[in-house]
Amino acid sequence: MHIRFLLAAPLIALWLSGCSTYGSESIRERPADWPPMTMTKAELLETLGKPLMQSVTITDGKTLESLTWSYADAQMNPALFIPVVGLFVAGSGNGVSGESRALSAVFAADGKMISRS
Asked: How far apart are CA 98 and CA 18, in angstroms?
């Protein structure tokens, strides 16, 4: 039984290393022009949850708060793990594929959105 586990553990680790997801999946399917500029900070936090980054700046006596959510998904081609063949796959540019999205919104002190990207 112990030998089977010792053989299976590296294979499971190899299988799990094939993909990686990071960030907030709640922005993954949103259109590029989302959220509407009428959305408040409270509404956006309720919809997306806690941001990955948050910063406050004071410019000309005005307090601005920036909230950022991001999402990334990467998948590795299993052929990368095959000796010799993996070198050709990596060299062809087909070793890793993925997608990423980010949303950054800036709010005035009253919670109204003033910009988004």
From this structure: 12
